[in-house]
Design a protein that fits this description.
Blueprint (H helix, E strand, L loop, with lengths): L1 H30 L5 E4 L18 E7 L7 H15 L5 E7 L4 H12 L7 E5 L2 H9 L12 E8 L5 E3 L6 H5 L10 E2 L3 H25 L3 H15 L1
Parallel strand pairs: 2-3, 3-4
Antiparallel strand pairs: 1-6, 2-5, 5-6, 5-7
Helix pairs in contact: 2-6
């Protein structure tokens, strides 16, 4: 009987301390939370347009389809399935695609192809002349270039304060251990499903949404200080 009593006490102790341990782990995880890096400030605003689309005040995924949108169909499908469908319910979230007016017919055809039965009201096509498209694109920090027809398979995350977000250090843990040269992630290749799914969707967009939730709750100050310190050190 004495042995059974001891077993019962051990089980009760475990049941009592497990929730406490879980809460402690969650608190530590919160303390170690780091926001998504600002890789470039003051991104250029969109040109004036009849729909009053703008970057300021919105969480924008910015894309460029160029004069031949159908050549970017794979990138468009991946962007819709892996990014848009997962985030379209977030307040102020939008996808904006910049392209020249001559591409309107082809762009609308592509949009119909990817639409299916989904709600695409937060996915916008913005037609602008070449100078305006290049003005916005050139304000971004990126390692890719627009094609001759003003297109790209890469997309960019712009926050509500018109800052470009990404990773100042995209090295793996192994590369950091081996002291590999520093490199960042400023744009996301929509052809690379792994990058889009595992980095942009599963990590970077999720972290950015958490940042905004923490700001609303007033729990963001310390994390913001850590991020600003990291940016300053990376620029030294």
């Amino acid at each position: 009987m004495e042995l059974s009593s001891k077993k019962r006490n051990i089980v009760l102790s475990i049941l009592f301390f497990l929730p406490v341990a879980f809460i402690i782990v969650m608190m530590l995880s919160k303390d170690n939370y780091n926001p998504l890096d600002v890789v470039k400030e003051n991104i250029a605003e969109l040109p004036s347009n009849k729909d009053n689309l703008q970057i300021d005040g919105h969480l924008t995924v910015l894309s460029f389809w160029g004069k031949k949108p159908l050549t970017h169909s794979t990138a468009a499908f991946n962007l819709k399935e892996l990014i848009y469908d997962r985030n379209k319910g977030f307040k102020t979230f939008q996808v904006v695609v910049m392209l020249p007016p001559s591409a309107k017919s082809e762009a609308e055809t592509l949009l119909k192809e990817i639409k299916s039965y989904e709600d695409l009201r937060f996915w916008h096509l913005l037609y602008a002349d070449e100078n305006e498209i290049r003005r916005v694109f050139n304000s971004l920090k990126t390692e890719v270039e627009l094609t001759e027809d003003l297109g790209s398979d890469s997309v960019y995350i712009i926050d509500r304060d018109m800052n470009q977000r990404g990773r100042l250090d995209d090295r793996t843990e192994k590369e950091i251990e081996d002291e590999a040269p520093l490199y960042g992630l400023f744009d996301y290749d929509c052809i690379d499903v792994g990058e889009l799914k595992n980095k942009m969707a599963a990590e970077d967009m999720r972290v950015l949404f958490k940042e905004y939730r923490d700001k609303r709750k007033g729990n963001f100050a310390e994390s913001d200080r850590r991020r600003q310190k990291g940016i300053k050190q990376s620029n030294e």
